[in-house]
Write a structure and sequence with these properties.
The complex is a heterodimer.
Chain A (H helix, E strand, L loop, with lengths): L2 E6 L8 H10 L5 H5 L10 E5 L2 E5 L8 H5 L5 E3 L5 E3 L9 H5 L6 E2 L8 E2 L5 H5 L5 H5 L5 E5 H14 L6 E3 L9 E5 L3 H4 L11 H8 L2 H33 L2
Parallel strand pairs in A: 1-10
Antiparallel strand pairs in A: 1-8, 2-3, 4-5, 6-7, 9-10
Chain B lengths: L1 H4 L6 H28 L10 H13 L2 H11 L9 H22 L8 H4 L6 H28 L2 H9 L1 H21 L17 H28 L5 H28 L11 H20 L2 H4 L2 H31 L7 H24 L16 H5 L2
Helix pairs in contact in B: 2-15, 3-5, 3-14, 3-15, 4-5, 4-9, 4-10, 5-7, 5-15, 7-8, 7-9, 9-10, 10-11, 10-14, 11-12, 12-14
Classes of the chains: A alpha+beta, B mainly alpha.
Chain lengths: 249, 387
Amino acid sequence: MSRAILYDSTKCIGCRLCEAACAERWGLPYDEKVAAEEQLSAHKLTVIQTHGDHFDRRSCMHCLEPTCVAVCPVGAMKKTALGPVVYDESRCIGCRYCMLACPFQVPSYEWSQPLPRVRKCDMCYERQLAGQLPACVEACPTGATLCGERDDLIAEAERRVAENSDQYHGLYGVMQAGGTSLLFVTAVPYEKLCLQRPLPPQPLSVLTWRMLARVPDIVVVGALLLGGIWWITRRRSEVAAAEALEEEP
Amino acid sequence: MSRWLRWLPRTLWQWIFWLLILGGLYAAYVRVAYGLGGATNLSDRFPWGLWIGFDVLCGVGLAAGGFTLATIVHVFDVKRYRPILRATILTAFLGYGLVILALLFDLGRPYRVWHPLVMWNPRSVMFEVAWCVALYTTVLFLEFIPAVFERLGWVRPLGWMRSFSVPIVIAGVILSTLHQSSLGSLYLIVPDKLYPLWYTPLLPFFFFLSAICVGFAMMLFESWHSSRAFGKQLELPLLASMGRVLAVLLSVYLLIRFLDLYHRGVLPRLREPRTETYLFALEAALLLVPMALLFLRSIRLSPARLYGCALLVIFGFVTNRLNVSVTGMEAGSGVHYVPKWTEVMVTLAIIALGFAIFRFAAQHLPIFAEEVPIVSGRPVPLAAAGD
């Protein structure tokens, strides 16, 4: 069982209290100027985006099989058993492959810092370990953001969609890129709210694992093949040299 | 006054070199003082730019001559390529050194560059690349160090080195195969971001094969410049045969590349009037033209024309790597990326440094000479058979 967050865009009123709570939890400044920014950045890890009369929420999706965890060369990204994907800044070398690879374009970088870190939502891992709710969920006045067991939230989301099928477009997050721990029920197609093109149902890391799994084969076959060729060509030159010696006198 | 004048650069090339180095040092200062944000035009949406696209992807590829030639000479025992082996190994070693230098500029925390060696994540392509580059740079060092021993007259270590040169070469070939292709695998993870003209499951194969092609082009390139600078040149039949191999390799590469585009159904995209189409056309032309020319005997029998073809292939290769890393990633990221002057300056300074170190080594080390047979100590049948 793992924890997840369900966001219901039909209940969201765009009050941005979740943004403020998130900023407070990370010790980041939050004022009108920051509130007006509608993009994720190193100083804004939860964002409410306005799309006409609809709202949409952006933060780390906490994938079940996260791309960032698969690509990080030093294992700085980790999927915890509890659900959140957490970042260990003491390991990070700053290659930014996680940023390139994330299908949701979530990780941000502290570009102006001399010793920069990757920044992203960690679903308030520490708070959840202590039995508290994530700050954004606690702050939400309308119940648009809920936190709970992922399976329960999927059941709840399916119930809402079934009961008001004219109001909802569908549920997002069960399958995409292998499934996410952030689930969305929205009034408009999710692809319209966000930048994302449709994602395959399997985790993206299978695409690179297919290659990496062949590394031992390449090493063993390569060594035998090259060694064998070398053995044959060397034998040939030895024979040629010996024949040349015999002919000389 | 005249004492100071003595230290001024004398030739135009020296002036250019020192200006580039000074510019690079200033850019390095900007990078350290103002961070990646101040020194680059990178952003959350576009985290990899010129330093990865050119310095790393092209740098590693352009150094591919090292393992290609080592295979030909040591494994397949084709002796007539021996005269350029050392110069090529030196270029490769320099190339990898400069790639690592460039990486130190690009990493957010360069002092942790060693972390992948102790903090493992075997599921990461980057982890594999890091290990391979570290090991292969060591291999290149071991392949080149005999030239230094010869210069110093150290006979005994020279004998040790030669006794295990073949396992080292084979290890180098395997490591190169792995990471040359893995640089392409890095982009397998972004099927939704990389433009379809470049995203293909065959990326690792294309990166590997095109690296071998550019390896041959770089050997022709070096031979030409060595002849101009040091009066040392390979005999024409050897250059011509390299041109022929290059033509065949390029045609195989291009054939599979276009077959892949056809089978994935993306050829119709070439009718769309957009930047990606034009830069793809440039990349394809820069490889198709030299391929066609190199099939002509009259081209292969002229060192200058061979050099021209090699240059086209090198430009075509660089265009391909920049297309994958920059052109192809722009549309998916939603931003337009143009490198900042500091990014360009660091890159130019690193290239200048490469040329200068090569020149220095060529003047002071026996890299254009045949291996010296060891007189005292064990006789080396392979080296003796080579002459």
